[in-house]
């Protein structure tokens, strides 16, 4: 299996920041050729392309960039458009830094070394833009709306519990749309004290805010459903998968080729089993690393199937009869779901346009 170092003429390592980027151009053996610092602007990105053309020993160039979805996003897009192979580089850990110190120049060099150690057929490419980015934005907005709606619901119930018997009954029950409309139109009673005037005003405000949040969450779910059906229509037809969980799976999966096989996707999802045996006990537990948002989505799918899917309910009963605990059964289900999701997305999502990857001469 060839390594990236065998297929390129040079590698660029970039340590990204808000205002400037530190860049190092190195040979395939890791020896630095030149360094520079550019502003994090469109002009700075164009300046870097000119600088590469002046100092690169050949045309086969790969760029290893930190923060391709953060401060390095604009630069990654520019280099990808220019035809360079862009690699997503993780921040160095303590082990990589040991004995080397910490500076922008050192981090840029470590980005070069990290890229040169990558197999050529398993390069960590940056996550996709387009529909995937639209889903990510909608999911972030949904999390914010859901958090605000929960906080407002708790505050409204607390205010209603301090009222009369009717209000206490409302606090214990479901705050339906009709109930919220009534609370939003409620007026303060005559001869009310200042405390009651303030309380009623806050109840009206919270009820109106909750109605607004619910409408926005409904619109958000409709947008997620439309995009998911365009990107991976077969995904949402699977049992236990709704628009929100499907959107999170697509955002984490990103594009065909980001995870080189279903085992890598399971590790990304934190559903790969880890040995947890001791003495006469032989057991496994779930990997607690990976993308926790993706793991949460798969966990929701597993719980839904255990509750509603006849096939999953039969499987759960059979494994429990064999001596498995409910947690162990859920671990097995999550690993199976990760495999199923990977295969579904690999078969249904369109393969992205191939980039000009470095090839052997």
TrEMBL record:
Domain called Transposase IS110-like N-terminal: residue spans: 12-161
Transmembrane annotation, as ranges: none
Signal peptide interval: none
Sequence ranges assigned to domain Transposase IS116/IS110/IS902 C-terminal in this UniProt record: 234-316
InterPro entries (alphabetical): Transp_IS110-like_N, Transpos_IS110, Transposase_20
Cited PANTHER family: TRANSPOSASE FOR INSERTION SEQUENCE ELEMENT IS1111A (PTHR33055), TRANSPOSASE FOR INSERTION SEQUENCE ELEMENT IS1547 (PTHR33055:SF16)
NCBIfam families named in the record: transpos_IS110
Protein name: IS110 family transposase
The organism of origin for this protein: Amycolatopsis nalaikhensis
Organism phylogeny: Bacteria, Bacillati, Actinomycetota, Actinomycetes, Pseudonocardiales
């Amino acid at each position: 299996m060839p390594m990236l170092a065998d297929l390129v003429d040079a590698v660029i390592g970039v340590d990204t920041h808000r205002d400037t980027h530190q860049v190092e151009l190195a040979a395939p053996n890791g020896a630095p050729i030149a360094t520079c610092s550019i502003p994090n602007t469109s002009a700075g990105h164009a300046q870097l392309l000119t600088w590469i053309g002046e100092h690169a020993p050949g045309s086969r160039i790969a760029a290893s960039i930190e923060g391709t979805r953060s401060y390095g996003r604009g630069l990654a897009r520019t280099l990808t458009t220019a035809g360079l192979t862009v690699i997503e580089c993780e921040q160095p850990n303590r082990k990589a830094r040991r004995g080397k110190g910490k500076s922008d120049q050192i981090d840029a060099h470590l980005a070069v070394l990290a890229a040169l150690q990558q197999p050529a057929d398993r390069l960590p490419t940056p996550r996709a833009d387009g529909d995937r980015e639209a889903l990510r934005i909608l999911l972030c907005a949904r999390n914010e709306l859901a958090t605000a709606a929960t906080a407002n619901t708790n505050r409204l119930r607390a205010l209603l519990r301090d009222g009369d018997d009717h209000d206490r009954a409302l606090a214990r029950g479901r705050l339906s749309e009709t109930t919220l409309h009534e609370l939003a139109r409620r007026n303060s009673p005559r001869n009310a004290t200042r405390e009651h005037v303030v309380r009623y005003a806050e109840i009206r405000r919270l009820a109106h805010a909750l109605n607004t949040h619910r409408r926005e969450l409904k619109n958000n779910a409709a947008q997620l459903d439309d995009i998911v059906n365009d990107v991976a229509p077969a995904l949402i037809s699977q049992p236990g998968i709704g628009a929100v969980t499907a959107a999170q799976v697509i955002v984490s999966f990103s594009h065909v080729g980001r995870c080189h096989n279903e085992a890598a996707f399971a590790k990304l999802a934190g559903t790969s089993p880890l040995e947890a045996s001791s003495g006469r006990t032989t057991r496994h537990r779930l990997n607690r690393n990976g993308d926790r948002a993706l793991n949460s989505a798969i966990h929701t799918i597993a719980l839904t199937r255990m509750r509603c899917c006849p096939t999953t309910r039969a499987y759960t009963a059979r494994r429990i009869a064999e001596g498995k605990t409910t947690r162990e059964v859920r671990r097995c289900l999550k690993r199976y779901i990760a495999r199923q999701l990977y295969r579904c997305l690999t078969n249904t999502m369109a393969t992205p346009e191939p980039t000009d990857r470095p090839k052997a001469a």
